[in-house]
Specification:
By secondary structure, this protein is α+β, with helices and mostly antiparallel strands. It has two domains: 236 residues, FAD/NAD(P)-binding domain (3-Layer(bba) Sandwich), CATH 3.50.50; 151 residues, no CATH class. It is 33% helix and 25% strand. The protein is built from 14 helices and 20 strands.
């Protein structure tokens, strides 16, 4: 996006890509479907970005979700909007987005060099002067491309096999920038004990997951989640994961509470349990639970509530019924860790936005140096927020760099 915007304005534009092919990460995003953006209005959109979504207000004012949708439709990639305002290419193929961008940038006049990693920035008297790259073609140790403007769009550190190995942070540091410590975000969480493993491959819908840090609820999400051999994942958990990771890195106790019956308050849930036990008074408790829980969850429930599975419905005491209700509304799992960058959808942390002009994406430290995308200290929830931030900052950086 950045390269195309500079080239279409007549600037001599070179795009350096260290991988054999461009757009590898874009091709796998959204499970290969590419959740481009979200139809949320500006103020709501900004709420889904951290640590300070307001940094992007100026960029969004110039190029936002409706502009992005129109941009791709003009390139022959129609879109569809799904639940939660999530926008996808109608084909359901992320590759269509990557291919369209490559065609468009080429048509705009961008020259691309693949397999060309940038070793260092050339900076003279506080102004960027180009970049240093391996000098394979020249036979020298390294070669230089001279330029009045350089835009760093190297992404974060997640999915490193696609080329996102944190190169941009190294370059930013060499230019004197502050890099907020990077860590995985939108990442599955690891949990203590064997509870998750016992429910491996079980997915839950319409549950409420709460994040607890040192005994205080710090966030809450409604939606889907699932259990794996190592812990928990799914949209609700991924959204909570950023704060969970920060808590763990600070040495705090982190746990997830799961409300399995969010549609029922405690009083209505107790009435429901009373009805079930009355209606199935002669059935064993373990069989009555089939009407309340998925099969894989029943043994876990029996263990954690300490109610005899053989007990008949009419034998369940008021104390036991209350214990069951409390567990259904507040099933707790302690978080012990998080998965590595290989499994993280995005990266939190990056170039400190206080050192970047929000109107242009230009460095406040080095003239002619620009940043766009995930290399910046901006990360968002699932739902298209991160890609829109990347496209909008790329659009602004590209327009500003000329």
């Amino acid at each position: 996006m950045a390269a195309g915007q500079t080239a279409r304005s007549g600037a001599n534009t070179l795009l350096l890509e260290k991988m054999p092919r461009a757009g590898l990460k874009l091709r796998i995003t959204g499970k290969g479907r590419c959740n481009l953006t979200n139809t949320a209005d500006l103020n709501e959109f900004i709420k889904h970005l951290r640590p300070d979504g307001r940094f992007l207000r100026q960029a969004f004012n110039r190029f936002f979700n409706s502009d992005l949708i129109a941009f791709f439709e003009n390139l022959g990639v129609p879109t569809v909007t799904e639940r939660g305002g999530r926008v996808f290419p109608a084909s359901g193929r992320a590759g269509d987005i990557a291919d369209a961008l490559l065609r468009w940038s080429g048509d705009c006049g961008v020259t691309m060099k693949t397999r060309t990693p940038v070793e260092s920035l050339l900076i003279k008297e506080g102004r960027v002067a180009g970049v240093q790259v391996p000098g394979v073609s020249s036979g020298k140790g390294s070669a230089a491309f001279h330029s009045n403007s350089v835009i760093i769009t190297t992404g974060g550190a997640s999915y490193p096999l696609t080329g996102s190995t944190g190169d941009g942070y190294r370059l930013a540091l060499s230019a004197g920038h502050t890099v907020v410590p990077v860590r995985p975000a939108l990442v599955p969480l690891e949990t203590q004990g064997d509870i998750a493993r016992r429910m491996e491959n079980l997915n839950l819908r319409n549950v409420k997951a709460g994040l607890w840090t040192d005994g205080k609820k710090t966030a809450e999400e409604f939606g889907e989640m699932g259990f794996t051999a190592f812990g928990i994942t799914g949209p609700a958990i991924l959204t909570l994961s950023g704060k969970a990771v920060d808590g763990l890195r600070q040495g705090k106790k982190v746990s997830i509470s799961i409300d399995l019956k969010p549609a029922l308050d405690k009083k209505k849930l107790d009435e429901r349990l009373l009805r079930d036990f009355d209606a199935h008074g002669r059935q064993q408790f373990k069989h009555i639970l089939k009407g309340l829980l998925p099969r894989k969850m029943i043994p876990v429930c029996l263990d954690l509530t300490n109610i005899s599975p053989e007990k008949q419905g009419h034998q369940i005491t008021a104390v036991e019924r209350k214990r069951l209700a409390e567990w259904l509304k507040n099933f707790r799992i302690d978080v012990s860790g998080y998965r590595p960058f290989d499994e993280a959808i995005i990266t939190a942390g990056g170039v400190d936005t206080k050192e970047v002009d929000p109107y242009t994406m230009e460095s406040r430290i080095v003239k002619g140096l620009y940043f766009a995308g995930e290399v910046l200290d901006i990360d968002g929830d699932t739902g298209g927020y991160n890609l829109q931030a990347a496209f909008s900052t790329g659009w602004v950086a590209g327009r500003s760099a000329i």
